[in-house]
Design brief:
This protein is of the alpha+beta class. It is built from 12 helices and 20 strands. It has a domain of 219 residues: FAD/NAD(P)-binding domain. The site of flavin-adenine dinucleotide has 38 residues, from helix 1, strand 8 and helix 8.
Length: 429
């Protein structure tokens, strides 16, 4: 046996799972297709990531990077008339309200190097082309530059291969999310205006009338990540344009973002990601666990991706540690892991799918929310998806309000500007 555990992928999910296992004394081999540092989207973190970073022993290393601080998020309407700040510290259930906005190339590299410093054997660039599960463990087929090279044996596998989904594809585990069929168009810019005031580097989320939205995420002293997410049906109605022109057009037609971009210069090519949301039928089985995007991914609107990746990696590491010690890495041992992954996905999914409907936005952008209701929403948006009973009930009340808004239209609609192609998507569901 070459390793106790083979981890496929060196993003946040792979690094966290591998680190936990190596720190528990297991022999871990991690296989990463790319050579780090490499570009990755997903730059705004949630407060809950602090706990995962603590568990991995990596918090001090991330703090030493001096990434821009994130204390919450600014939510604005496309016309710029409404803007509200949601601070993580307004929830009493968020132990460490400050997190970061990161350049992922650096963030992921620090975590991967941390894994190596904890004893993980990191192989990169090393693509895994196959994983065969049998009664003894798993046999990985490795390739380098297209040529089949060698095989590696381990007692169990953690699939952290991100959207690629090595095992999810092989075992046909993916569940599509047609309600989140969106497309993201984005780049990095210098010279984007930052608000004055105490929290100039917090993420800004600007809702568009067509149910799309913009993100504006400062990732270092000069660079800002700017992207627009459009519903696929809205995007398909647009004229055929280059990625650059799509992004420029979206900026030009969204008043709240135009002034921020007046002095901006694009520093990278414009990138596009689409069809990024999916669930999983199952997150673990005999000798295998899926973590992070290799399991499921939700639309990026509430920045849940890295938090889920790190937390699921930590959970997988703990779960597998116990299973290896007891000499039983069968599916039965991972039933709790499976349940937790599914429950977290369902909890966030309810909120995320809501954001793409008008009644939800009318309630969410209410300029004068009751403080306790706001605090409950903040708790979830900070990443705490399993809050106290009181907060859970308040969140249910929030969903009830969105239902009432759908039926009765009690609140005014969110202002109607910033529309792809001039006509808003019709989704009152
Ligand atoms: C448009 C967009 C915006 C986003 N914005 C945010 C945000 O603001 N905040 C946030 O938290 N999240 C965001 N996300 C989500 C975030 O990017 C992901 O959830 C996060 O990167 C998941 O981490 P991971 O470790 O599971 O996967 P990844 O970070 O994708 O890492 C997977 C790794 O596996 C490697 N790999 C793949 N296949 C193989 C193979 N066969 N062999 C070896 N290695 C392999 C890859 O090279 C990669 O390094 C966004 C996503 C999108 C699409």
């Amino acid at each position: 046996m070459d390793y106790d555990v083979a981890v496929v992928g060196g993003g946040p999910a792979g690094s966290s799972a591998a680190t936990m296992l190596a720190r528990a004394g297991h022999r871990v081999g991690l296989f990463e297709r790319d050579t780090f540092p490499r570009f990755h989207i997903g730059e705004s973190l949630l407060a809950s990531t602090n706990e995962a970073l603590d568990a991995m022993g990596a918090a001090a290393k991330i703090r030493a990077m001096h990434f821009p601080e994130k204390w919450g998020a600014i939510f604005a309407t496309a016309d710029g008339r409404f803007e509200s700040y949601i601070g993580f510290s307004t929830s009493g259930e968020v132990p460490q309200p400050q997190t970061w906005q990161v350049e992922r190339a650096k963030f992921d590299q620090v975590l991967l190097e941390h894994a190596a410093s904890c004893g993980v054997v990191v192989h990169q660039p090393q693509r895994v082309i196959d994983a065969r599960l049998d009664a003894e463990g798993v046999l990985l087929g490795l390739a380098h530059e297209g040529a089949a090279s060698r095989r590696v044996r381990a007692r169990a596998i953690v699939d952290a291969s991100g959207r690629w989904g090595l095992l999810a594809r092989k075992l046909n585990l993916r569940v599509p999310e047609p309600r989140l069929a969106n497309i993201a168009i984005f780049s990095h810019f210098s010279g984007v205006a930052r608000p004055s005031g105490p929290r100039p580097t917090d993420i800004r989320i600007i809702a568009r009338e067509d149910l799309g939205w913009f993100w504006v995420i400062p990732i270092d002293a000069s660079l800002t990540s700017v992207g627009v997410v459009l519903r696929r049906d809205v995007f398909d109605q647009l004229p055929r344009l280059s990625h650059e022109d799509h992004l420029e057009r979206a900026i030009a037609e969204t008043p709240a973002i135009r002034p921020l971009m007046a002095g901006a210069r694009r520093e990278w090519a414009v990138r596009v990601e689409k069809d990024f949301s999916y669930g999983a039928r199952q997150y673990a089985g005999d000798r295998w666990l899926l973590v992070g995007d290799a399991g499921s991914f939700l639309d990026p609107v509430f920045s849940t991706g890295v938090a889920i990746a790190l937390e699921s990696g930590v959970e997988a590491g703990r779960m597998l540690d116990g299973a290896l010690r007891d000499g039983d890495v069968s599916a039965r041992r991972f039933a709790t892991f499976n349940r937790v992954q599914r429950a977290r996905y369902v909890a966030f999914r309810r909120f995320v799918t809501g954001f793409y409907t008008r009644p939800f936005r009318d309630v969410f952008y209410n300029p004068d929310p009751p403080p306790r209701l706001l605090s409950a929403v903040v708790t979830l948006l900070a990443g705490y998806w399993k809050p106290s009973l009181a907060t859970t009930l308040r969140l249910e009340y929030f969903y009830l309000l969105t239902w009432l808004q759908r039926q009765l239209r009690l609140l005014p609609a969110v202002p109607s500007v910033g529309t792809a192609g001039g006509g808003g998507a019709d989704d009152t569901a």
